[in-house]
Amino acid sequence: MVAAKPTPLHPVGDEDSSKRRQIVDGARKVFLDLGFDGASMGEIARSAGVSKGTLYVYFADKSRLFEAIVEEESLAQGRIAFNFDPERDVTTTLMDFGQAYIQLLCRPGGGSATRTVMAIAERMPEVGRRFYDNVVSLTIAKLAAYLEVHVTSGDLEIGDCQLAATQFMQLCQASLFMPFLFQAAPAPTAERIAEVVGSATRMFLAGYQKKRD
């Protein structure tokens, strides 16, 4: 069952914060290695180097602990500062964003975190929803807001900037993220990412860049 409320991320003091970090780090490794169903509180306690008694002081069960890890991952990714300065030209911004976005998705552990959330989202929909809202949806909204500025300035012709932002992000993932997600290929090289994002940018602008008379 999903806990009624997510585990708060506000420790009481330094010692409490340090111990909680130790537990969360140990649990993250167990969940990524074994999945939600394969993980046990005993295994998590051993990985974190704490007693089961100490573990239960901080988290009532593994569902609450898993939620805390997903919440933390969501907050961390949501704080990633892509450069959407409206004064930057569209091509440079899309290229830079696309490469940074794919490097984030395909970083070590990134695919594992996504796989773990996907595996449990049907059983714990609130966890999946929070991850989507705080990571995927937030990034789409930031890119869409940038595109809207350039629609207003006349650089782009886009009827639905949320859709266009999603399309660009999906184009950047093409041939890169799915193989990585399913462990069919290692993380792509920076050169390959630049190649794919360059193609995505050209395709995007071919459809949305305002045609000059």
From TrEMBL:
Question: What SUPFAM superfamilies does the record tag this protein with?
Answer: Homeodomain-like, Tetracyclin repressor-like, C-terminal domain
Q: What is this protein called?
A: TetR/AcrR family transcriptional regulator
Give the source species: Bradyrhizobium sediminis
Q: Where is the HTH tetR-type domain?
A: 17-77
> Any idea which UniProt keywords this protein has?
DNA-binding, Transcription, Transcription regulation
- Extent of the signal sequence: none
Q: Which Pfam families match?
A: TetR_C_7 (PF14246), TetR_N (PF00440)
> Which sections of the sequence are annotated for DNA binding?
40-59
Please list the GO terms describing molecular function. DNA-binding transcription factor activity; transcription cis-regulatory region binding
